[in-house]
Amino acid sequence: MSLTSHPKPGQPVPALQVGMVGGCCWRLSDQKPQHFTLVIAYRGGQCPDSISFLQDVDSRLGEFRRRGIAVVAISADPRQCAESTASELGLDRLPIGYGVSPDRAMAWGLEPLGKGHTDKTGCAAFNFGIFLVRPDGTLHTSYIQSKPGRLPTVNSVLKALDRTLERGLDDPSAFVLPEADNDQDAPPSPAP
Fold first, then answer.
1. Where is the Thioredoxin domain (predicted)?
2. Which of 9-13, 86-90, 97-101, 175-179 has the lowest mean pLDDT?
3. DSSP H or E stretch at residue 160
4. Judging by DSSP bridges, how do beta strands 36-41 and 69-74 pair with one another?
5. Model pLDDT, residue 172
6. pLDDT digits (tens, 9 = 90+) for 95-129
């Protein structure tokens, strides 16, 4: 049973300030997107699935911006690891934040993955999560992956954002991601 609380739709999200790769710091309260800020909490540079997801977001960042969505990716990685990951992977468009403390992660509903889920530096890794935050600092909706498995695809995130923008910004039920194992972005099975 989880002891971690997390923000609920319509409630203010916890304050978020992180160091940035290539910059000073990033504050959620400073963001003024047209529609939402999409906060991607990734497991860190040691997680191939997270890295693949971030590479796809980085290459498609313009698609988020055209929808009025500001995007940031955050992790518990220390600065040196986050900078190395961004440099090695060529993540030069997506803002990458680092140094999320265990307490801050848990305030967002992100639980530690447990012993053995640390990188070479001993940094803790947390659940993968996506948070859609309104410009007023309240949570629209969130997706936290609490079990191991494939992450949602960037296509599924963009489709969920399109549904949300079409149905209205106040309807958290519009932002639905398919279960990764049943991701509808996967190619259809051939007919028998």
1. 7-166
2. 175-179
3. helix 154-167
4. parallel
5. 80
6. 999 999 989 999 999 988 765 555 555 566 888 99
In 3D, which of 76, 73, 70 has the Cα closest to residue 30?
Answer: 70
Strand pairing category for 25-27 and 96-98: unpaired
Q: Are the CB atoms for 144 and 127 separated by under 8 Å?
A: yes
Q: Which of 125, 151, 127, 103 is nearest to 45 (CA)?
A: 125
**pTM (predicted TM-score):** 0.86
Instruction: Using DSSP bridges, classify how beta strands 128-133 and 139-145 pair: parallel, antiparallel or unpaired.
Output: antiparallel
Residue 156 has pLDDT above 70, yes or no: yes
Cβ–Cβ under 8 Å, residues 169 and 134: yes
Report the amino acid identity of residue 104. R
What CA–CA distance (Å, rounded) separates 19 from 13?
19
